[in-house]
Write a structure and sequence with these properties.
Blueprint lengths: L1 H25 L10 E8 L7 E7 L5 E8 L3 H19 L5 H14 L7 E9 L4 E7 L5 E3 L5 E3 L18 E4 L5 E5 L1 H5 L10 H10 L5 H16 L7 E8 L1 H4 L1
Antiparallel strand pairs: 1-10, 2-3, 3-4, 4-5, 5-8, 6-7, 6-9, 9-10
Length: 255
Amino acid sequence: QLHRETIDRERMKQELELAREIQLQLLPPSTPSLPGIDIASLYVISEEVGGDYYDYVPAPDGSLGLVVADAIGHGVSAALLISAVQASFRAETRISASPGASLEKVNRQMQERNTSGRFVTIFYGMFDPGRGLLTYANAGHPPPVVVHADGSHHDLGESDLILGVDAAVAYREHSFPLETDDVLVLFTDGITDEPNAHDRSFGRERLVDIIREHRAGSAAEICDALHGEVIGFLGENPTDDLTLLVLKYRKDAGS
């Protein structure tokens, strides 16, 4: 019995290592450098490997696509699912810059693969620094937040069904204007919803407060501040992946 438990533990460890390797291979190779856009990211893979994914999609016109997704589940199955979604997504965004159309295509492909019972939340936004306009679609993902230079904030709360439920879903596109020094933060639910040792979650309100407090800093400084606060709250070994993507609009730098 003890021998079997040891073998099972070793197998589970190997599977989680494989899942971790798969997810690390999905990361963008570098952070894009574009006029008017200051960007930074945080990516922490949990011990259980939670299926998070983020990506950048530079467009020929100087716009930048931002993707944050989360496969529901953990381990190898979540990593393989998010890997398939990433492949579909990158192929689709080479054809279409439309966030809504891209989500619809990826959703249909998930259905065609018969990934029954496997679901993904995803936010895809295309930001045009020339116009200061974010165009986005959301498939059940936690709403990103915009903190303005004056400290007020706005939740991008419009959303449609998560991927993998219904192949016929129409993903609506929405637009939101950013002003100079506005901060846009995309994240996965591990940031806000993951319980700590005292069964308390970090929460959205705390997230907004920290962004507001550090909004005068660079995207990297805001990201670092959030990282420190979240890890300080959750501990060094969270049980869900943590993903943050911070964009600060430098309108003057892009003009």
